């Protein structure tokens, strides 16, 4: 998903993110959104270096970090991809279940978010999100 964001949003997003690196797992930073129709892109890594495998603990930490930063920025909406499900190698069913759990906890604790969009460019990830939400 990072590649798709870069292609559509432009080099500015990556350039700003690289300037903020390294970003630890469990932390998140916001950059401008380039050409994307949004105010920010929130970067919440699930791995210490690109193209590494990752795990459910990192997926949960990244999801929580992104949601916490969205709350800090007082955002009303956020779009979140399947954390760790690409090159990270986390099975989509497990990753989506972990992400949904983190989202439900955030909602129960109070947030400025009114809309959370779960993003997918893959049918199996879409199905896993739908199953985890049931």
Description of the molecule:
- This protein is α+β, with helices and mostly antiparallel strands and 134 residues long.
- It has a single domain, classed as 3-Layer(aba) Sandwich (Leucine Aminopeptidase, subunit E, domain 1).
- The chain has 5 helices and 4 strands.
- Helix 1 packs across helix 2, helix 3 packs parallel to helix 4 and helix 4 packs across helix 5.
- The chain is globular and about 35 Å long.
- The model has no long low-confidence stretch (mean pLDDT 94).
Oligomer: single chain
**Separation of the first and last Cα atoms:** 24 Å
- CATH topology tier name: Leucine Aminopeptidase, subunit E, domain 1
Q: Can you write the helix and strand succession as a string?
A: HHEEHEHEH
Note poorly predicted spans. Answer: none
Search tags:
134 residues; alpha+beta; Leucine Aminopeptidase, subunit E, domain 1; two-stranded antiparallel sheet; 4 strands; 48% helix; 13% strand; globular
Give the structure's gist in a few sentences.
The chain has 134 residues and is of the alpha+beta class. It has one domain (2-133): Leucine Aminopeptidase, subunit E, domain 1, CATH 3.40.220. It is 48% helix and 13% strand.
